[in-house]
Amino acid sequence: MKGLGELERSIMDIIWAQPSAVTAREVGRLIADRDLAPTTVMTVLDRLTRKGFLVRTRDGRAWRYEPAESRDSYIAELMLEALDLTGDRSAALTRFAQAVSGNEAEILRRALTELEDE
Amino acid sequence: MITAAALATLALVCAVGAWRFTRARWTYRAPHVAIVLWQALGVTWGLAGTGTLLAYALEPYGQGVLHGLAAFAASALGGGYGPAEPYDLPRIVALIAGLTALVVLVVVLLIAGAQTLRARRRHRTLLALIAREDPEVPGVRVVDYPGATAYCVPGLRSQVVVSAGTLKLLSPAELSAVLAHETAHVRERHDLVLLPFAALRRALPWSRLVANVQAEVSLLVEMAADDVARRYCSPRRLATALLRFGTAGAVPTPNGAMGAAGSCSAVMARVERLVTPGPVLSRGVRYSIVAFSVTLTASAPLLWLVPH
Description:
The structure holds 2 protein chains of 2 kinds.
Chain A: H1 4-17, E1 22-23, H2 24-30, H3 38-50, E2 54-59, E3 62-67, H4 71-82, E4 94-95, H5 102-117
Antiparallel strand pairs in A: 1-3, 2-3
Chain B: H1 2-21, H2 31-57, H3 64-76, H4 89-130, E1 132-134, E2 137-143, E3 150-153, E4 159-163, H5 164-169, H6 172-187, H7 190-203, H8 208-229, H9 235-247, H10 264-275, H11 283-305
Parallel strand pairs in B: 2-4
Antiparallel strand pairs in B: 1-2, 3-4
Helix pairs in contact in B: 1-2, 2-4, 2-8, 2-11, 4-7, 6-8, 6-9, 7-8, 9-10
GO biological process, one term (chain A): negative regulation of DNA-templated transcription
GO molecular function (chain A): DNA binding
Pfam family, one (chain A): Penicillinase_R
């Protein structure tokens, strides 16, 4: 039995891979872990919806789930913060280094060549 | 009046000291010590600046700043006694200004802390859904992004994150140097060092001095992490990793985002001291700076307590 976080992740991956909204039953069929109880799938889908990662719409007696945002837009959100491009100057992350602007990069490139030649 | 004058002097000394200190270069030879001094300057400046106004305003109580505030609060709420002599206009202005400044400083810090925690929680949640493990770098979260990033999400359960672009950009030796650097950030809780300075910068965005101070403290924090990392890896590989990061300018700047290009001189300063380390500050000098910082930090609270 996988942890809840791991399950959320696999279920998001499944839903991201689908071209359209899916029901809990379809998710259950697509998930690799066959022993998963349908209620567990429902619980995880519910959690993900509450967290805002999934949007659900009524379809007859079932819910259909689709991702609120694409995987790429979440990656973009993470990386904007990682590159300190959000403009809020927060101290939320500590970064290793940042890229410099065009002209200055040339100075660094030269220093790099020197260091590698030695 | 003496307390107010002493606090004013202290605040002025801190401000002038900070201004001079942003240009000091001995700090690169002992970044850890310099960070301690910066923290002392920051705390003392805040307490001395607000204390000056309050000491002057609350002088009629004759009880010093802290007890004067308590007496003022008691009389304001109707339960206590008023000052011996009535307030005059300058004291009222000073009281309002002092209380406002104090409240602003505290609130700005609290807001910054809360925002930081919220941003980190969101970041962690997203990482849990998106980042993967890579057998090449056990214990490190990898995000599939072509640009070069390496950072840590500090906290009780801190995480080190690198992008797929970083894995491609760096050699294994360079990568382990970068990871040693990030681990140093995590272990020494550098985020807590940076938080108040970042908060102050947001509170006073027009202040050149505050901006310089924040940049300087960030650089010193990086150097401190470099110093820890060099014990576990080749400093030269850390230097080449830094240069590679700096030149990996293939980062598209999204619309509306603030340009956050690092500064070339900051990168070069770090590279130089990694490749040709200068002599470390002598033990005596380092201890005296720490002792001075401790005295400085203690002085403002003591002046808040003295009765006149």
